[in-house]
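Quiz preparation item.
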């Protein structure tokens, strides 16, 4: 509904409750940080978004196997923040990590997550004026879709 301030308030309350009731490395707490990152990103607060996504990633690394599909979302979200700050090489490194998770999971290799990741890689290359590389990744995204 576009009321990011209210959403932020509820996500913060949810995180507080989860931190009181769950172990500190519980995947639901990582999801709560990811949700906060999304709201901060929508509000234009890139540093808080990045910090929230990084906290989510830190928890995921201690609580989930390295090929868990959740990593695709988190890596892509971190990449998006870096791309929005014109840090394309860092964005690409996180998009590559997301793609590697997709590659390790047969059910993800031809999924919406893989297509979205290819789209993000293509977008970053486009922003870098590497048009032929961008086109190849965007074509892969379309092929999967």
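Solution:
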């Amino acid at each position: 509904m576009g009321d990011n301030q209210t959403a932020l308030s509820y996500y913060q309350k949810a995180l507080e409750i989860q931190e009181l009731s769950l172990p500190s490395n519980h995947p639901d707490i990582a999801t709560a940080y990811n949700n906060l990152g999304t709201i901060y990103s929508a509000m234009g607060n890139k540093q808080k978004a990045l910090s929230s996504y990084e906290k989510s990633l830190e928890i995921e690394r201690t609580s989930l196997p390295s090929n868990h599909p959740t990593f695709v979302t988190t890596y892509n979200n971190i990449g998006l923040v870096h791309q929005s700050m014109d840090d394309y090489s860092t964005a690409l490194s996180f998009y590559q990590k997301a793609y590697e998770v997709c590659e390790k999971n047969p059910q993800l290799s031809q999924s919406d997550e893989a297509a979205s990741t290819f789209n993000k890689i293509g977008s970053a290359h486009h922003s870098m004026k590497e048009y032929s590389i961008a086109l190849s990744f965007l074509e892969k995204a379309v092929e999967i879709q």
